[in-house]
Amino acid sequence: MKFKKMTAAAMAAMMLASGAAFAADGEADEKISVIVDGKALEFDQPPIMEQNRVLVPFRAIFEALGCKVEYYSYDGGEAVNAKLGSKSIYLTIGSTEIYASGEEKTIDVAPKIVNDRTLVPIRVASESFGANVSWDDATNTVNITSKQGFYKINREKIS
User: Fold this and answer.
1) Element (H, E) at 19
2) Whole-angstrom Cα distance, residue 5 to residue 9?
3) Does position 10 have pLDDT exceeding 70, yes or no?
């Protein structure tokens, strides 16, 4: 009986130690935060880091920027599109070729699907609509300031 308790305690300690080592060593456990115009975003699929690029859920980031979003399926492929005024971005899942307001560009990391969510590189997505993007390495936070964020209008009733 005493042997079983000691064995269980030793195994639990090893599991905790290996988990702590992975968390300190691996980037997978690092939470990435995204702030758009001063408001922290919540995601049902957390942002991920791939090749030093942050990928975030497509719909969440573009709707936070005020865009209309659309999904397309064709011949076994999938693509996403976001529009805001005269600007747009069109990304194909798995392709590094994108169209930003009709101009073809190449990006470092292709959009991908993770847990049934389309993830896109946050910097290229946000900058396509004129937003400023910065990375705070100390807090693992992406800060986005959209142009519309500079000109918010507060409506108040004057009596």
Assistant:
1) helix 2-25
2) 6
3) no
Confirm if 78 and 116 have CB atoms less than 8 A apart: no
Structure tokens at 33: 């935060």
Maximum pairwise Cα distance, the chain = 79
Dihedral angle sign, alpha carbons of residues 30, 121, 127, 155: negative
- Which residues, 6+ apart, have CB-to-CB distance to 34 below 8 Å? 40, 41, 43, 47, 54, 56, 61, 122, 141, 142, 144
Answer whether 84's CB lies under 8 Å from 66's CB.
Answer: yes
Nearest Cα residue to 48 out of 21, 24, 28: 28
- C-alpha to C-alpha distance for 35 and 41, rounded to whole angstroms: 6
| 73 phi-psi bin (left φ>0, alpha ψ -120 to 50, beta other) | beta
Q: What is the CA radius of gyration of the chain?
A: 21
Is this model's pTM higher than 0.70 or not? Answer: yes
Measure the CA–CA gap between 125 and 62, rounded to whole angstroms: 8
Asked whether residue 117 carries a pLDDT value surpassing 80, the answer given is yes
Across all residues in the chain, what is the average pLDDT? 81
Q: pLDDT value at position 155?
A: 53
d(CA 70, CA 87): 14
